Amino acid sequence: MTSQVFAVCFGASQPLRLAQFWSGVLGWEPADDPHGGIALLPSDDTGFRIRVVPSQKQKVGQNRMHFDLTSASLEDQQQTVARALALGGRHIDVGQRPEDGHVVLADPEGNEFCVIEPGNEFLADCGFIGALACDGSQAVGYFWSEALGWPLVWDQDQETAIRSPHGGPKFTWGGPPVAPKKGENRLHFDLAPPAHADLQAEVERLLSLGATRSDTGQGEAGGRVAMADPDGNEFCVLTPR
């Protein structure tokens, strides 16, 4: 069995404030986090939690991944935007066109996300978090498909998308050109191997698929192994429990 996505992890200078923002936007409840930080548990079939952990690293440039939130109607989209703004979000310009139907926002720490217009066919059968949209190569989409055992649901013009067989959000990669990486990512995946799995064997499997060990100064401290995917994006493999 392969590892699964345990969490999407945000690094934050004010973890409590950011956790309260995403809890309010998504309607997810906070919970104890055995790995440190603050955890938000999904109220639907999203399949992973959100973790917010302390970080003093400054955000540099646009994030390589962001949430796409879906809307059932224009009124629903407007309500999501209004709720995010009331919780401390703000409108931002990332080059979207005036005729684009989606609304681009940033959370209180500047992390970008989109509120997608109703009628988006690509996200039609997804939940409120319709996608985790990533800036990345076709190769990294193939890597994550193999790493997680999730099938490709889109593979055209070097753009890729995968989705868990159990449903939930799609993970998408936009293909070239991929913007140069500037510092450590503010968002990363935490992977959980199957219970009682051999951690080293899982790390070796991921290395064989194209991952590398990431020199973050942590080694295997704190019950996790720091790694990076073929595009250099950090992720962690948690010690099986």
Automatic annotation (TrEMBL):
InterPro entries: Glyas_Bleomycin-R_OHBP_Dase, Glyoxalase_6, VOC_core
SUPFAM superfamilies: Glyoxalase/Bleomycin resistance protein/Dihydroxybiphenyl dioxygenase
Alphabetically ordered keywords of this record: Lyase
Keyword field contains Acetylation: no
Gene3D superfamilies: 2,3-Dihydroxybiphenyl 1,2-Dioxygenase, domain 1
A Pfam family recorded for this sequence: Glyoxalase_6
Residue ranges occupied by any VOC domain in the UniProt entry: 125-240
Gene Ontology molecular functions: lyase activity
Domain of life from the UniProt record: Bacteria
Listed name of the protein: Enzyme related to lactoylglutathione lyase
